[in-house]
Amino acid sequence: MAINPAFFLTNATRVIFALKWAGVENVYFMNGGFEKWADEKRPFAIQVTLQVVYGLLKGLYLITS
């Protein structure tokens, strides 16, 4: 199955711009994926918090560098 790399680049770029537009400050394009990011010893932290709001399950994902 051939996958067009430009398709993923376009989607990743849209997500980055959407997050920045929404006010998220620490957003990065991980060219080479998470494995390369970790191999280069770049900082990262992942925090996942779930809470119930008015009977709905709401997820909050916080990824910081």
TrEMBL record:
Superkingdom: Bacteria
Transmembrane segments: none
Domain Rhodanese: 12-46
Coiled-coil portions: none
Record Gene3D superfamilies: Rhodanese-like domain (3.40.250.10)
Name under which the protein is recorded: Rhodanese domain-containing protein
